[in-house]
Every structure is written in C-alpha cells, then in structure tokens.
C-alpha cells in the first residue's frame, strides 16, 4: 500500500520526538520579530541542549488557544506569547509563574527594561512576563505632501494641527487622503486607537466607581472630532480598515498621515515594499493640551503558565530571548535595524542602533509618554492605556467598537452610538458585578 | 424518452455552466496566482492578474519557517484514519437503520444530525478538559478520534440515504440463500453501494482535511495538520498575503488532486439513486 511509508515516517517522527532529552513548546504570534527569533533559536538549543517546539499563530487564534489552555490548566504550552492586556489579569488569577529569577541575574539586568513596559507587565511590583518587543503609536506622515501643503509638522503636534494638515493634504482627484486611521470594529482594532485618542481629549471608560462615561461630553467631543476628520480627509470605506489596510494605503502613497503602531515605521520606510520610503517623517501622537497624548503602549511578552511542567527550561528560554545578548545576536546576523525594539534602555543609548533606525528616538519618546497605571486625565480604577485590563473588556470593547464603526460607515449618529454604548456597557458591568 | 434539446439552448447551458464553474474556481485561481507574486504586488491596487515578477520565494519562505511534510503526513493520517474508522462504525449503523428500522430510527437520525447544529466552540471547554485528562492534547490519535466523532453523523446519514435506494428484496434473496448477516453486508450490500460509499469516503476525507477549529485548538505543534500550517501564515501586522497563498496552495494541492482523479466516483456517488 502506498501510504505505508508515510505511516512509517510518521511513527519515526513521533519516536524521534519522544527520544530527545527535553523539549519545550512555545506559542507565539506571527510577526516579523517573532519569526526572526524562531529562525535564530537553534543557537539556544546549541547552548542548552533544550529542543524547541514552535506553535506560530495569527494573533486572534493565538489568544483563543492560549486562553483556553491556561484557563483549563491544559499544560500544552511551556512559554506563551501574551500582550500587556493579558498579563495583569492572568497574574491576578495566579495563572502565570513570577519571573523573579530574571531579577537575580546580573547579566540579564532587569533594571534596563523600559519603565513603562516593565510596569505594564508587573503586578504589585512582581514581573510576570518578560517583554520581547514593545511598541507605542505615533504619527507617520509624508514629508513631501506636508511641504506642498505649506505646513511644517511639529515634533509634538496638537489635534487641531493634525486636523488642519489632514484637510490641507487631502487631494481626492489624485486619491490622496489627508489621514488614515483605524475604523475596523474590535477591541484591539478601532477601540485601541479611539481609547488612546479619547485619553488625550480627557475622556475615560469608567469613573472610579466603574460607572461607564460615554454620556460625558469628552467622549462626544472625541467621536465628533474623529468622524468629522475621517469624513473630510479619510479614505473611503474606512470603517473596514485596520492596521494592515492602512499600511497598504500608506505604502502606496495614498495617505498623508497615519497614526498607528510604532512597529509600522520599519515597514513604511522599507523601499522593497513602500513606494514612499524616502518621504516619511515621524512625530509624537497628538494631544489637546490636557497632559495626555493619544499614544498607546503594547508589548508582546513571554510568560510561563503555571500548568507547564518545565518551568526551569521555560525560564531559561525567556532569559535568552529577552536578553541584551539576543539583541546583539540579531544585530550581528541581520543588522541593528532588525533588532526587536521597545524593551531596553540600553538599546536606545546605542549609537549603532540610532544610526540604523531613524525612528528610534521617536519610538522611545512615545513609549515613555504612555503610562499604563495613570492613562487618563481624570483618575480611573483600571490599568491600561488603549484597553481596560479586566476580563470583560474584550466583549465590551468589541461591542462599543462595532457601534463606533457603524457611525463611521454612516449607519448611525454619534449621539445614538454613545447612548447605546453607555447602556450596553452599564448593563454588562452591572451583570459582571462591578457596578452595584 | 429523451427530450429534444435545441443546439441554441445546449450552447447556452454550456456557457452558463462554464461561467458558474469559473466563478466557483476564481478564488482558488486567485490564490494560486498570488502565491507566485511578491508581497508588494499581492496587495497592489489596482491588482495585477498575472504576476509581473514570477517568484518562488514565498514557497521557499513557507518551507523555511514550517515543516510542510510533517503537517501533510498528520493531515493524511487524521483525514483517512477518521474516515475509515467512521465507515467501519457507520456501515453497520446505516444498514440497521435502512433495513431493520425501529419506531425510533427517524428520531435517532434526527438526534445524530442535531449534534451538528451546535457551534463547535460551545463544547470547547468540556472537550478540552477530557482531552487534557486523557492526555490526548496534541496527539494525532486524539485528533483522529475527534474528527471521527464530528463526521460520524454525516457518514451515517449519507450511507443511510444510499442504502435506502437498494431494494431490500436483493438482501432477502441473499438471506434465503443462507447468507449470514456479516456476509450479507460485506458481499451483497457493500458491492452494490460502492459508489455511495466511495463518495462518502471522499467527502469525509475532504471535510476532515479542511477542518480548522479543532485541529488548531487541540494541537500545539507535533500533531498540527495543514490547516494549522496555513493559519500560522496569517499576520495582523505586516504583509503576508503572498506567503499565505503559497501555504494555502501547498495545503490544498493534495486534496485538489484527489478530487480531480476521483471526480467520476464523486459525481456518480452524489447522483446515486437520483435517476431510476
């Protein structure tokens, strides 16, 4: 039978798998920095003898898989790649192993981690995940279009300037949109942007008693500004645009400005993919003079679930992948521009990195401008800049995101969307026991 | 009596059939063409139909990052294994329902079908806990078991429908000649139902091959099938369409070939009993 060799092959593979000394399973997200780490991980195996079994998944699938596994104590994974949203929630559930050992290792130098990123991954001063790469958001803009419009981008612009520039740069005849912003519904899509934007307008998701705040004037101001700006200067069909869609538009020269993740800087300045690589400038996310900017903070980080049976080997891997030595390894193999950004102070002090990444200082400034513990103008009971770190937020955030996306699509008014958002969020928060 | 069909309407039907076929085939064709484009060209607007620069880089990148052969072997074992086990259980079950029905046979059939009405995610946690406790997570045999269970209602239903078309008199004649139950099924029923069994087999291999929810959730690398292989190439940040297309093309190629070579059986099985 023809299939016999295949079955024999499968059996051999299975036996080979069980014969090796120690194997840890790593679940990670599919993005450039993680794929590079996967490619370089042979070095870790050579150094330690620990074999690595990789599970690379798209972000949403990864989140579903690791959440199922950790909530059921499944033990499928020894190292999980999780974001700043999950870390505080899971740490409080005691689902994550504290990474105290990293603090004890002088070579690792835990104090070198950027303070906002470290804070975002710690609960009560204990680090529960080690940052692999960190990002904030900032403005990427076309220097040539800005010049044609007779304007000059300040390093730290206001929303009023951004609105003026976006309208001036818009040229519908030539398919150039003054500004491209996220519109696709989802807690990690349009709500990441709009929550960060609302912080700069003085809005907040909840007051100190967990009462939703969509009935307050700050949210109306935020949404009115966003909708009017997108109607005047945004691309058509913006309500279905997320990161990748806007990246495509910007790379094809169809956006004057784009406010999104700092990680996009390397994509839009890469001449292989971007038609405007030489004409991109960067500026801090806008503010309204209230002391908070519209930038977020995110870090893809490595953590050990308590269900893992191999804590020590997993910790060894995390130490290797998030160390200074790893950054040097990437620099030696693929150049400083490809080093995972946003985690260590020493990287931003490195002149070679500053030369290779012209957006380095702006990325650092953006990360430092975000404070996950005090994200808003008025006090809030939650942690998180562009999200609220409570388990219910994924559902609530996506629900509100759908309403705001519908406004952008012209299916609903701002007032109706805010009223519905207020009612739905209040209902969910009451059911969840936050609002008495 | 054969119906007279005018040349004009015959041409009309032929063109219509080709158009529908092309419409159905268009996404696969687009995926195939995109697989040979660069990432920048894959997202170009307006899109290009044929690749401007024909490249095999995507296939190279896909193979570099992931192990196609391992995933393909897992897919073959799970899809063929679950279908064969399913047939072994379903043939006797369908025989009993078709030729020795009880008062409750219809109810049982409906109950079996009702298990397909619930979204898979509704039973995710119980199944995950059972798999964890039985140590079936990330194992090929665990995946084969779940795939058998998922597809069993469809296999039983399809075989039941085919068996109902076979005149019971033939089986009775075999019994009159002294055939025992086992011989009746193996030597009389199965040979007569070969087209139906073949198309059930093919359809279930395809269903198991394409199943994504359970294969992605219950595996973590070792037992991953080609659907898990494809999903690892979708990315929320950065360009991935060309590589995703290359991975998809590699993943559907075996099943596409299987379908191509067995289309006669498939069509015969699917229309079995339609014309008397």
From TrEMBL, chain A:
Pfam families the record matches: SBP_bac_1
Superkingdom, taxonomy of origin: Bacteria
Subcellular locations according to the entry: Periplasm
Signal peptide (from-to): 1-21
Family membership: Belongs to the bacterial solute-binding protein 1 family.
Protein name according to UniProt: Sugar ABC transporter substrate-binding protein
Keyword Amino-acid biosynthesis among record annotations: no
Gene: smoE
UniProt keyword annotations, A-Z: Periplasm, Signal
CDD domains: PBP2_TMBP_like
Automatic annotation (TrEMBL), chain B:
Record CDD domains: TM_PBP2
InterPro entries given in the database record: BP-dep_ABC_trans_perm, MetI-like, MetI-like_sf
Protein's membrane topology: Multi-pass membrane protein
Database matches in SUPFAM superfamilies: MetI-like
Subcellular location: Cell membrane
PROSITE patterns: ABC_TM1 (PS50928)
Keywords of this entry: Cell membrane, Membrane, Transmembrane, Transmembrane helix, Transport
Annotated TM spans: 12-33, 72-96, 108-131, 143-163, 184-209, 240-261
Stretches assigned to the ABC transmembrane type-1 domain: 72-262
Family indicated by similarity: Belongs to the binding-protein-dependent transport system permease family.
Protein name from the UniProt record: Mannitol ABC transporter permease
Species per Swiss-Prot/TrEMBL record: Devosia nitrariae
